[in-house]
Task: structure prediction
Amino acid sequence: MQTTFPKLLLQHAAQRPHAAAMREKEYGIWQAHSWAALAQMVERMACGMHALGLQRGQHMVVIGANRPRLYAAMLAAQSLGAIPVPLYQDAVAAECVFPITNAEVTLAFVEDQEQVDKLLEIRELCPLLSHIIYDEPRGLRNYQESGLLWLDQLIENGAAFAAKEPGFFRAQVEQGQTDEVAAMFFTSGTTGNPKGVVHTHSTLMDRAQAGAEFDKLGNQEEVLAYLPPAWIGQNIFSYAQWLVCGYVVNCPENAGTVSIDLKEVGPTYYFAPPRVFEGMLTSVMIRMEDASAIKRSLFKAFMDVAKRVGPARMDGKALGLVDTWLYALGNVLVYGPLRNSLGFSRVRVAYTAGEAIGPDLFTFYRSIGVNLKQLYGSTETAVFVCLQPDHEARADTVGVPIRGVEIKVADNGEILVKSAGLLKGYYKNPKATQEVLSADGWYHTSDAGFLDAHGHLKIIDRVKDVGRIKGGANDGAMFAPKYVENKLKFFPFIKEAVALGDGREKVCVMINIDFDAVGNWAERRNLPYAGYTDLAGKAEVYEMIRGCVEQVNADLAADKLLAGSQISRFLVLHKELDADDGELTRTNKVRRGFIGEKYQPLVDALYTGKQEQYIETVVKFEDGRTGQVSATLKIGDAKTFAAVQTAA
Result:
């Protein structure tokens, strides 16, 4: 596709000027922005940014939630040949220093006072940052810092500039080339500083188009943009595919209204990580436990029908007359109202990615008629590598390679990818680029996996994380920590898990409970608790978690390859793992090495046979203050099982 994102915007504005491009919810009311109005806004922003000195090839940081004016700012920068660099809005100020200095950012576009304060705090460390444009003026009236400008004023200045030079904007857009850099996304930085992943208009649009072709997406789709714009997945679904397909992107009022807004919008194309689907199901099950006996029995009866025949129905298989009638009745009484309650009444395609999704969770959504599928990709591949066809969705694979993708498996089990969507490189980091991009164009994903007999890709773990048990009865057995962690997280009571075992004689895990799910479980048993730490330490909770651990061990025993990864000992952490405390990345991935060092006394206690261990932990609160959480944690032993011998 020989074009650019600003050119696509002008194309939509010319062909469908009055059609809705984006909607945003303000004060409880949905406001629509047409393609023509959006194009005018982008023109004025671009002219205003040009007047501030933004030039072709320069970087502009973007920090905020999904808003039409944020997307317009990115388009405005691209119109001038500049490069938007979205950062996570919940990142602390110190985390913004490296991306801003590394990319030599001179201009920043931010959402509100919180983000302005963040940048002003680090401004001395970012000497090139000369201008900060903010969207929401609330609380900023008395700020007198140099270079601080309200977006409305920028737009007004841009309108005046455009009136004087009416051909400037379109001339700038026409200069844009498809192989020019379109955006830069910083990786999570699980080890060391994050890396800037450079993508061109071509790489992003090629993958957006390939994904659209695979699922037959058109301009009639409705999408809800609620995940961080700094995450490339949100950018692909709500920016690249939005401009390629011309569908409508809806921006929720705020993070707290997403579930309500989801029901109001009724998206046809939806994406969420597994934790969002898990949270929705947990909420449903909690509500059903509070329902009347008649409703509970009706729900159970029809869910049994759905689990038995629903997945087969979604896979296009023929059902018997009785099953067809029962499912149709269940659809009227249970499944339809449930989909409507979740906001999925119009969903045609729903995707999940990032982590493995539990088989029960996957089956639940497909059984009630939600076309939930999995995909595989990364920041470096512009997301779309493998997608699941409508009638071939399975919980244990991530789909088949789509148009333009080649996959091969290296001798060490690493997945290698070749496609037109690969990164141009890591910004100012040729060494890291050479490590992941071979001379003949193969990208090293660092994921270990294989293609099954049906051509579907299965992911086991990160190559560097796949280890071996050393010593004991399982000496030499493979250890895949992420695989073990994901199996634990399939239980609604377990939110996070950290598995340890490489180079050791047994596997031990540290577990975070899901406070809402376990809290509801405890209340139904009249078990009082005074917050997370107290609940996590309850003997009854430990026994319940032990049951989950031992069920995972039983499952692992049936897997010839990973039977040696069964969990011998476990503990329940006294606090939730948190990105602000450095324990998770901003995309909620466990930083296993950092956690192992931070909680070294707990690791030692697990492996030296202790029954309990006292721990003090420094935590960071949302307002920047620090505090301390301490507890004496019980350490439990778990039953392991003999490996199941399968027939040859």
